[in-house]
Design a protein that fits this description.
- This protein is mainly beta.
- It starts with a strand and ends with a strand.
- The protein is globular and about 40 Å long.
- About 0% of the residues lie in helices and about 50% in strands.
- Strands 2, 4, 5, 6, 9, 10 and 11 form a 7-stranded mixed β-sheet that branches. A 4-stranded antiparallel β-sheet has the order 1-3-8-7, with no helix packed on it.
Length: about 120
């Protein structure tokens, strides 16, 4: 059974930065694609970023150029570095194990970490 633990959320001012982490256990991390998704209040969960096992990356248009997804296979951890944050980035962020190349999520999720962008 795959387990994912998200962390790193918090309150940040517009224009600020945060780095999210997701530690994975129980799976074969090094051969799995990993993804980040987010869900704002009253909205559906949406794709944010994906990184393949070969470290190819793919971003939603709304975060491209501001967010960077990366992975450390020695630590079974995937990261999301978020910069130039805006109030519309406020959401609960979830990591996901095994999203497909189109961004359709796999079946295993982290518990979510809240990101709030506000002055």
């Amino acid at each position: 059974q795959v387990q994912l633990v998200d962390s790193g959320g918090g309150l940040v001012q517009p224009g600020g930065s945060l780095k999210l982490s997701c530690v994975v256990s129980g799976g074969i991390f090094s051969v799995a694609a990993m993804g980040w998704y987010r869900q704002a209040p009253g909205k559906q969960r949406e794709f944010v970023a994906r990184i393949s096992a070969g470290e190819g990356t793919f971003y939603s248009d709304s975060v491209k150029g501001r967010f960077t997804i990366s992975r450390d296979n020695t630590q079974n951890t995937v990261y999301l570095q978020m910069s130039s944050l805006q109030p519309e980035d406020t959401a609960v962020y979830y990591c996901n194990y095994g999203p497909n190349p189109r961004g359709i999520p796999g079946g295993d999720w982290g518990q979510g970490t809240q990101v709030t962008v506000s002055s």
